[in-house]
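Hi U.,

Before I forget, here's the chain from the pilot set. I'm dumping it here mostly so it's searchable later in email.
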Amino acid sequence: MGKIISIANQKGGVGKTTTAVNLAVSLAIAERKTLLVDLDPQGNATSGIGYERDDNQRSIYQALLGLATPQEVLHQTDFAYLDIIPANPDLIGAEVELLQFERREFILADRLMPLLGSYQYIIIDCSPSLGLLTINSLAAAHAILIPLQSEYYAMEGLGQLLHTVNRIQETLNPRLDIEGILLTMMDQRTTLARQVEKEVREHFGSLVYESIIPRNVRLSESPSHGKPIALYDVSSTGAQAYFQLADEFLRRQARP
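Structure:
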């Protein structure tokens, strides 16, 4: 059975979509059968993987509303071990439309259930909010991976997110685990970034990945070219950082 990982942080601009895309690609390159689910109405993971957004394509919206089966909204990517369920602007209305459903917090979990046997990892890119779509993601996931930008307000936002995770564990998904906290957009040259890293590691210990995603121009440029960093510039420090993260991620999975 596959493992569902929700990439979530209610704060925008922390490298969430970048992490979802490039971790999914790195796992696929490591020959782990992976599915990337774009659950953000902005559809940035969809375009970032190189999949052209089309308002008429079948997407996560149709699956959530029961207008298509999960298998019908799957799309292949340029990577043999990676498929995607894309998002398009239709998803903007889903937050309201899902309110009419019974068990509305578990709709995504029900839709992904038939796919669990086909993938080793299902990576969900969440929107930067704690609305019904993100709640669905956390209710469906085995674990949450939290990208954390190395900046002054990082710890405050992290506290709010962990409070939400606790509420989800108590009410909707007791199996939800914290996969790890990933420091992103790290500039080791600044004192502030180093202080944030020190505080996060002191507070959360082994939950924090040793791998760090640095600020990297090539990494920032790659979405505008519709390519994950592994295709845009495989030798860049950004690409190497995500390969290192995937390796550490897989080593953690192998722990007893």
